[in-house]
């Protein structure tokens, strides 16, 4: 805006000088013709300059629409966004202190697995786990099965994320299982066994 005003001020000053005969470019009549042509050129230039969005406006528009300007590098490709569909996260299994429907104690199952008792776990460092979709209190839930034994559920706070990850069954799997707890605390009371798993998708 400032540049436009500055240019117009210079044009008006030059026009006054020509009309008052203080400046003669190529005679009075040719000077007037040049002023008229310059007027229309300046009008076109001013309109174009004032209607062109600035960099700040472009950044604001990109922020509103959630888009960013594409990088100028010719190597950019839409395929690079595929990494957004993959990930990994770990969580502690919920409900490990309860019993299963068949009366099995989840704490007993986890204790046997931690110490490698057969048939629960021949190798406590090589446990396998899977998630089984089910319902709990009428809502979607995922039971956590380690070596085929249910040890609890996916925490309620992770249900939506797990459900989204499992949409791609080809890449979604439990990559690690770890039995925690056991022994006694500083107060001499026994510590509950727990289970932590990592889900890759």
Could you describe the 3D structure shown?
34% of the residues lie in helices and 21% in strands. With 201 residues, it is of the alpha+beta class. The protein has 2 domains: 2-65; 85-200, no CATH class. It has a 3-stranded antiparallel β-sheet with strand order 1-6-5. A 3-stranded antiparallel β-sheet has the order 2-3-4. The longest helix is centred in the first third of the chain and has 24 residues, at 28-51. The radius of gyration is 37 Å and the shape is rod-shaped. The two termini are 53 Å apart. Residues 55-84 have low confidence and may be disordered.
Record the SSE blueprint.
Elements: H1 2-19, H2 28-51, H3 55-65, E1 88-92, H4 106-114, E2 129-136, E3 139-146, E4 149-153, H5 159-165, E5 173-181, E6 193-200
Antiparallel strand pairs: 1-6, 2-3, 3-4, 5-6
Helix pairs in contact: 1-2
- Low confidence ranges: 55-84
Broad structural category = alpha+beta
Q: How many discrete domains?
A: 2
In round numbers, the mean pLDDT is: 80
Strand content: 15-25%
Main beta-sheet annotation: 3 strands, antiparallel
> C-alpha Rg, in Å?
37 Å
State the order of secondary-structure elements, H for helix, E for strand.
HHHEHEEEHEE
Number of helices: 5
Shape: rod-shaped
**Strand elements, count:** 6
- End-to-end Cα distance, whole Å, is 53 Å
Sequence of strands across the biggest β-sheet: 1-6-5
In percent, how helical is the residue content? 25-40%
């Amino acid at each position: 805006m400032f540049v436009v005003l500055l240019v117009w001020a210079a044009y008006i000053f030059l026009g006054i000088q020509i009309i008052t005969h203080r400046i003669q470019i190529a005679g009075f009549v040719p000077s007037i013709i040049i002023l008229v042509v310059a007027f229309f050129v300046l009008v076109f230039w001013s309109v174009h300059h004032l209607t062109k969005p600035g960099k700040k406006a472009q950044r604001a528009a990109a922020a509103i629409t959630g888009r960013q300007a594409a990088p100028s590098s010719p190597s950019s490709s839409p395929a690079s966004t595929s990494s957004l569909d993959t990930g990994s996260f770990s969580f502690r299994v919920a409900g490990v202190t309860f019993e299963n429907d068949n009366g099995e104690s989840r704490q007993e199952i986890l204790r046997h697995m931690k110490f490698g008792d057969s048939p629960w776990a021949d190798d406590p460092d090589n446990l396998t786990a899977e998630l089984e979709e089910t319902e709990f209190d009428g809502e979607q839930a995922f039971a956590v099965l380690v070596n085929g034994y249910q040890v609890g559920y996916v925490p309620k706070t992770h249900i939506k994320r797990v459900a989204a990850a499992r949409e791609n069954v080809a890449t979604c799997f439990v990559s690690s299982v770890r039995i925690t707890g056991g022994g006694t605390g500083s107060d001499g009371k026994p510590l509950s066994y727990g289970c932590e798993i990592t889900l890759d998708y």
